[in-house]
UniProtKB/TrEMBL annotation:
Every Enoyl reductase (ER) domain range: 12-343
GO terms of molecular function: oxidoreductase activity, acting on NAD(P)H
Pfam families: ADH_N, ADH_zinc_N
UniProt name for this protein: GroES-like protein
Domain of life, source organism: Eukaryota
Length: 349
């Protein structure tokens, strides 16, 4: 049986839409018919610039998927054909999200609550992991704000800052800080997103179109008199953004980030400030233990409305719409505008 897939055959070559075999689910895996897949900056930067180290070609990209269970691999329990699931696909020659079917281990997925659409579910996997691992996982993986998803954890009275709050990652960081009870959640984002960001938990929005990044540490002091004990840096490509985040952080505070490998500042020990990076996969160490717990808890967080999916912009033409859309991630993702770009591979002409 064959399906349509979008393949990058060798480094820095255009996507090729082609027919490939439908994978067979191995032991402990499900075969999933993908009904929605999200676009992420990494898809563009790998295809166009061969950005990630150790990428093996050919590769099927696509880091977010939601769909229906079609077939159960040997030994799988707790799932039946037709279940709706979402997950971060493993990237590889036959496993990414830019295809109509993929196989995935049951340890790294969750069922989609009935109130959540496939497209909404596909807005979460990679960017939610990017926010939740460095924020909630126990030290030294993350800041340890709530490693067990205890509903009684509260940082009432504390203040936090999210730099890049309108990005997909930033929107989940804001919601997670609200979940663990921060009293003040200040975010640095374009003012056009203010109403939406306040609706998901931000208490103050500092407009990045009128306040230069370099002015952020001083501007925060006009917004709150409380020390900023937690800074989450949700957009990491901009020059100086990590340094500015660190400048906003109170001594003794913690700075989880979306950066895969942040540099530790020289005065970190002396000032008691800690920085955390993330490689947002729950399949690799040191993320596996927390990741397993995260997949067990994420459906309830969605079901209860604690975490709301991103708002969606539907990309037409299924897999055939990807190549023309990914360049919108160039130059700080200005063309993304706070939405998650999602498509349905089954709509591929
Ligand atoms: N480490 C990992 O494993 C991992 C995984 C996934 C993503 N990431 C990283 O996480 C970050 C967010 O990814 P995403 O998919 O959520 O991005 P996204 O949704 O494409 O982010 C788009 C938004 O970023 C904001 N932005 C752009 N430049 C900014 C700046 N200089 N300061 C503050 N905000 C800025 C813009 O906000 P406005 O509209 O408000 O101007 C834009 O709407 C990226 O840096 C990405 O590389 C890391």
């Amino acid at each position: 049986m064959s399906q349509k897939a979008l393949v990058v055959e060798t480094a820095k070559t255009p996507f090729v839409l082609k027919s490939v075999p439908i994978p067979k689910p191995g032991p402990g895996e499900l075969l999933v018919k993908i009904m929605a897949t999200g676009l992420n900056p990494v898809d563009h930067f790998v295809q166009a610039y061969d950005l990630l180290p150790n990428v093996k070609y050919p590769i099927i990209l696509g880091c977010d998927a939601a769909g229906t269970v079609e077939e159960l691999g040997e030994g799988v329990q707790g799932y039946t054909k037709g279940d709706r699931v979402f997950f971060v696909p493993d990237l590889g020659a036959s496993s990414g999200g830019f295809q109509q079917y993929t196989a995935i281990s049951v340890d790294h997925l969750a069922k989609i609550p009935s109130r959540i659409s496939f497209e909404e579910a596909a807005s979460l996997p990679l960017t939610f992991c990017t926010a939740v691992i460095p924020l909630l996982a126990a030290n030294p993986v993350g800041a340890g704000l709530n490693p067990t998803f205890d509903p009684n954890v509260s940082f009432k009275g504390d203040s936090a800052l999210v730099i890049g709050g309108s990005s997909s990652v930033g929107q989940y960081a804001i919601q997670l800080l609200k979940y663990v009870g921060y009293s003040e959640i200040i975010t640095y984002a374009s003012a056009k997103h203010s109403d939406y960001l306040k609706s998901i938990g931000a208490t103050h929005v500092i407009d990045r179109t009128t306040v230069a990044l370099s002015a952020l540490p001083d501007t925060i002091k006009t917004v709150t008199s409380s020390p900023i004990k937690l800074v989450y840096v949700a957009f990491v490509q901009a020059p100086e953004i990590m340094e500015v985040g660190y400048s906003c952080l109170a001594h003794g505070g913690q700075m989880p980030t979306a950066h895969p490998a942040p540099t530790k500042p020289e005065d970190a020990e002396a000032t008691g400030r800690k920085i955390y990076g993330v490689y947002a996969s729950t399949r690799i160490e040191p993320n596996i233990e927390f990741g397993n717990l995260m997949w067990k808890n994420i459906s309830k967080l969605l079901e209860d409305g604690v975490i709301k999916p991103n708002r969606i912009e539907h990309v037409p033409n299924g897999l055939a719409g990807i190549a023309g859309t990914l360049p919108r991630f160039e130059g700080g993702s200005a063309g993304i505008n706070g939405m998650k770009l999602v498509l349905n591979p089954q709509e591929t002409p």
